[in-house]
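Quality-control log, excerpt.
Job 1 of 2 completed; input and output follow.
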Amino acid sequence: MTMMTMMIDDSDDDDDDDDGTGNGSDDDSDDDSDDGSELTDRQIIKFMFREGLKLGINVFEFVDVEFLKVEFQAELSKHYSIEIAAVGELDQFLVVDYLYGGFVSEEIDYQFYRQAYATQLEAAFSVEVETLTDLQILEHAYTVGLTEGLALSPIDYEGCLKDFGQEIADYFKLDLKEIGNLDRTQVKFFILEVASEFNLDISQYVDLEYFRRESGNSVIENYRVEQVYSLDYEQTFEFVSAQVGVNTSPLIDLEWYRTEYPEDLAANQAELDADGNGEIDDSELYDALTGEFLEQGNETSPLYNFEEYFNSDEIKGDVATYYNVESFDQLTHAQKLAYMFGQGLLEGNDPFSEEFLAEHPELEFETFLQVNSAALVQFSGVQSIEEVSFTEVYDYQAVNGLLNPGSDAMI
């Protein structure tokens, strides 16, 4: 008996090729029928646990939750990191979220939900919102959020898919009916990075004020610009992109990496091609660059070079001390990169590689300070050029796009 036949009372009449996972072998896009006779298992489940709940349908009339808790207690225990004995206490929505596709957990932004509905959450659970677990947030999203139409994320995926479906299909080389198969990372990438190429106004689909208001500190950390409310929409979009999986930061240069490390990409083609379209898409490459490839010691941009920067025992010792570890070798490459463009700038160290400066000598910090002194003084909000630090020089170059591929670095 499959998970689907346990769920739908009349499912014995189904003829589709279910794989036993609750997600039949047909995908969401294979159905052109208007009468519902050819709906796939996944389409039915998605309707029940999203639209059905919004319509007030008691979907649990069709689900034996207690049976599922027993049958899949090991999987539920592992997924939610709880003891086997605690599986019996799991909310019914959490059980079906994991076993039948995770439609809400795929979309919810827990930080956004906490911030946006703090009052409702505290009233529901009688504790401060900061103490709530993601499991409690997910439970609330199902039991209250869906029925009351609360936004699960600061990005309106469904609205974008509905209004810009053809453009999305064209970009990902899909039929229009197949765009429902795209995962949220791909949709985010289109919204934040690609839509402008189609001249689409997507500001209505992104809660920019949320990112400005609640992520101010992160914006400052990302750009190291103190006047966060002076950031324009373009800069905010760039920050949002970094937060959700695609980064316009000069430290991530996708095209340069494709040229610099073609062997790595070829060797890892199957692993990196998550959507199986035969190509390593930008969003897939970004994930690898900020994960496994970075930790291999591969640079992610021509701006810097690990070996050149950490070429002395003195600098290695400084970094180890900064991170409070015994040895430089204990550090991850992500930590090293963060130091180079964070504390290292505060220490007055120029992070750029010799190759980059050979091609862009005008961006060497001391040179840039002298040539652009008036602009830097104004940007930094100080009285004289002597007060401008390397941190502010880099801020200025990054925020003004001077470090991005193809930009005109000369002012």
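Job 2 of 2 completed; input and output follow.
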Amino acid sequence: MSSHVEEQVRARIAAVRAKAEADRRRRQELAEARQHGLAARHAQKLQRQDGRGADEDDQDGEQQDSDTVDGPTEFRPSTGGGSATAERTTPCP
């Protein structure tokens, strides 16, 4: 026979496990959606580039597409304000 306290502890443990599993599934779904979005964005960019002729590329000179960034872009959590948003930083050349 289990005491009332032991039953409450078991219920809390089960709730924590269920929440952890739900969180894991949500993170996995978000990662899959992100990958799908990145692939779609890349495909769209390639289509835009295919639409331009070789002579148009020569006329652009040093002008870059507005959606490109020099060098790799690094994402890291914000350190100020306690917000859960991320800052976008570009490394110095």
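Post-run check on job 2. Residues 74 and 89 are 6 Å apart (CA to CA).
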